[in-house]
């Protein structure tokens, strides 16, 4: 249990649901969904209880009504599902969320599509989520809205006088980039319906304050406050952590997996298959490493797991083809009868296997082009006793994890050099750096994050003391 408990029920709102109900030949099964936001928040909800409002995206989700108790194995909180039509899924989710906002906020503006139909459905879907919140929230509720899919919800529910906070899980870009969105005012005003808005890093929070100024809001930079009409909106920095205990409590059973992979060193990468994660660049860097360091041929393997993600969105299908081709080319060129340089899996893995992969890996390779935080790197550090981390300077996690080998993900040469440094790092240095990283991940875990956010949030409702001695 956490020390900081909110004095009212928590109503959490996200696009993705934490658990889906799926029909199989064995009947309806309940499955945990993959993704950073769900990973972080399921741990939170298990501790606080309350209601989670999310899109019921699976066919069997509504078979027993729109409200269920989850996690299915040991229910401790309520999931209220929102039903979206096919048109809303297409234009709100795959369209505005994933083909407009996602690329813009990850600096892939050339991929962004600005389409009025997308926008209209985004407004409509946000209205549905807002209504679902109003159905379950009471005057005492603390409503916590998450991520870029739901930026309009705070201002839509504001009239009902709930306490509202928002957490933005992806990067917040500078005004130069944000200003390209034709609906920038609506999005910004939507978010400002919150009393507190959280980001992963100082840099994103500064960008947000800069955008507020550019849009004409009065900003108090020292106190990180945006004045919006007669209200103050507090902007805060809360780098998300992981459920540290969950990763340390798994016993080491990685030797079975390890013995099946040839060579002295295993490098590991696991991501949703997404163009922002830098997976293609990682493959090219590994190829360059093998070319420049032939002594490592047959002795090193890159294991890359990619989870299918947003598979109906064109850019993701294109990227999958490119990745298939790239892995095929590299393996075709360098494989021998008893060595395959890259082992590539396009599938989700269970939690148990995820931890086995982390434990067997000598090096984790995390090279996103842009990433709000990145939980994979923290999970690896928690799961291992020692290891080496190669981390993109453009992952939010790089602001904290400075003992990693930090690389520029656009620079293939730098990543290849990083791999060399990692596999040849002296034991002493490896241990020293890893212990420092482990200390940080242990200290700022998911409980720390939640407590920091909740205590900042509650403070906003404590009435200020009248100044003593004033007339
Ligand atoms: P994501 O973009 O989803 O999250 P990330 O933070 O790396 O990215 O989290 C991915 C999660 O999915 C991890 O918990 C990982 O273990 C899991 N995962 C990935 N591939 C998997 C697979 N094949 N099988 C099973 N599990 C898999 C968004 C932002 C991030 C931010 C988080 C949290 O884009 O920047 O860190 O939210 O705020």
TrEMBL record:
CDD domains: GT20_TPS
GO biological process, one term: trehalose biosynthetic process
Keywords on record: Glycosyltransferase, Transferase
GO molecular function: alpha,alpha-trehalose-phosphate synthase (UDP-forming) activity; trehalose-phosphatase activity
Record keyword DNA repair present: no
One Pfam family per UniProt: Glyco_transf_20
InterPro entries (alphabetical): Glyco_trans_20
Record GO cellular component, one term: cytosol
Name of the protein this chain belongs to: Trehalose-6-phosphate synthase
């Amino acid at each position: 249990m956490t020390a900081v408990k909110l004095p009212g029920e928590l109503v959490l709102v996200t696009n993705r649901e934490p658990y889906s109900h799926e029909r199989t030949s064995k009947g309806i099964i309940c499955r945990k969904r993959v993704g950073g936001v769900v990973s972080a928040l399921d741990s939170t909800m298990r501790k606080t209880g309350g209601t989670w409002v999310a899109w019921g995206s699976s066919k069997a989700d509504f078979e027993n009504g729109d409200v269920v108790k989850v996690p299915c194995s040991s229910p401790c909180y309520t999931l209220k599902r929102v039903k979206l039509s096919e048109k809303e899924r297409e234009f709100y989710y795959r369209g505005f969320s994933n083909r407009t906002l996602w690329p813009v906020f990850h600096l892939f503006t050339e991929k962004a599509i600005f389409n009025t139909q997308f926008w209209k459905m985004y407004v409509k879907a946000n209205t549905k989520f807002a209504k679902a919140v109003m159905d379950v929230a009471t005057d005492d509720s603390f409503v916590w809205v998450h991520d870029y899919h739901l930026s309009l919800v705070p201002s839509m529910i504001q009239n009902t006088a709930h306490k509202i906070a928002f957490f933005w899980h992806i990067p917040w870009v500078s005004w130069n980039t944000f200003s390209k969105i034709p609906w920038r005012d609506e999005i910004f005003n939507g978010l400002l319906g919150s009393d507190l808005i959280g980001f992963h890093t100082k840099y994103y929070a500064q960008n947000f304050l800069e955008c507020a100024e550019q849009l004409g809001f009065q900003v108090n930079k020292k106190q990180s406050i945006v004045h919006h009409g007669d209200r103050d909106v507090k902007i805060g920095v809360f780098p998300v952590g992981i459920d540290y205990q969950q990763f340390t409590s798994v016993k080491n059973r990685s030797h079975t997996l390890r013995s099946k992979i040839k060579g002295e060193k295993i490098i590991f990468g696991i991501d949703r298959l997404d163009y922002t994660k830098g997976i293609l660049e990682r493959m090219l860097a590994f190829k360059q490493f093998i070319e420049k360091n032939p002594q490592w041929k047959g002795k090193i393997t890159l294991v890359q797991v990619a989870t299918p993600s947003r598979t109906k969105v064109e850019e993701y299908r294109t990227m999958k083809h490119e990745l298939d081709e790239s892995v095929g080319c590299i393996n075709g060129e360098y494989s021998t009868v008893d060595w395959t340089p890259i082992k590539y899996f396009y599938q989700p893995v269970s939690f148990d296997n995820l931890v086995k992969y982390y434990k067997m890996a000598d090096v984790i390779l995390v090279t996103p082009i842009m990433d709000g935080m990145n939980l994979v790197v923290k999970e690896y550090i928690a799961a291992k006793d020692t290891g080496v981390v190669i981390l993109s300077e453009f992952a939010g996690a790089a602001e904290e994890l400075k003992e990693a080998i930090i690389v520029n993900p656009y620079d293939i040469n730098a990543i290849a050099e990083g791999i060399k440094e990692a596999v040849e790092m002296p034991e002493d240095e490896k241990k020293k750096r890893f212990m420092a990283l482990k200390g940080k991940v242990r200290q700022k875990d998911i409980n720390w994050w939640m407590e920091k956010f909740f205590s900042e949030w509650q403070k906003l409702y404590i009435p200020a003391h009248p100044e003593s001695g004033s007339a």
